[in-house]
Fold:
Amino acid sequence: MAVSDIEAAIQLLARLPGLGPRSARRAALYLIQRREAVMQPLAAALARAADSIRVCGRCGNLSDRDPCAICLDPVRDGTVICVVEDLGDLWAIERSGAFKGRYHVLGGTLSALDGRGPEQLNIAGLTTRCSAPEVAEVILALRATVEGQSTAHYIGERLEGSGVKVTRLGQGVPVGGALDYLDDGTLMAALRSRQPA
Amino acid sequence: MAVSDIEAAIQLLARLPGLGPRSARRAALYLIQRREAVMQPLAAALARAADSIRVCGRCGNLSDRDPCAICLDPVRDGTVICVVEDLGDLWAIERSGAFKGRYHVLGGTLSALDGRGPEQLNIAGLTTRCSAPEVAEVILALRATVEGQSTAHYIGERLEGSGVKVTRLGQGVPVGGALDYLDDGTLMAALRSRQPA
Structure:
């Protein structure tokens, strides 16, 4: 039944971030009225993408192959590994174009509350990768939250003595950020990491 | 390639009302991380829905059958036809539960600018339906825009002498609406249609 298929699609669309029950209905309406131009291609693209997604056994990235395109790209710098929490953070850094090394996706942060210990994260894979002689630096690009920072601290300790340089992202005023909208922690970090003008 | 399938899906998602390039990316990320729970069911529901949608030859509604479930429902009042601009307006009225008759979907409004005359709209079908003896009333539930109202006026004239009562939606203060946010036209309409308290 199309009515219930449409209803099913609306309920699934409503779960997407940024859409709610009402906007999912509007989105479904839009799709129905553009059946051949948008609805069918979208259904096909989602089905094909869902079918071909693989977890990269090396870095934990999600893409259509294992190892992923980033791990296989000979142009990228294999001496630097950027450790991120999840795929969204990897995409964000890729979008910026500021990093040309390889990644390591942890799949979350350590969290006593949620019962996530080191075994639940892709940390063992990271230490294995760091034992390769070409790896010189690990950048811990974890979020500036309590959990992100304690995870960074834990990984930093695990990599101690491995001979790999461990760094973190700089903290400070966001580019274009107005000072009076910043929280105190960011302002303190920006003052601590002040540089000659 | 999954990467380009994901990219294709992101670009199609970004065309949905309520989503832009950035939120489409977030939505795709959400889907990828919930491949079996959301992504595959959504792809399947969209494909099935796109496949089974029919235009109702009687009223112009879009659903999985022709005639549509509303036209076939023996419980609904066949003496009243509610004329709406498009499927979205039909859904809005159905959601309210305030109407239990049948519908007629015009597929737009008359518009000299966009070159939409009476032939481009489903108006001939409406006059044919109104010639049936059981039809007693046509409610013109068109939007309170210039084009909606001129379309209502045109249809009203076309149905003159058909013996069918033609009505329009009441205009006034929306339920829960604060007066000082209303435009002058609505306030004028509310005053004109004032009723004994």
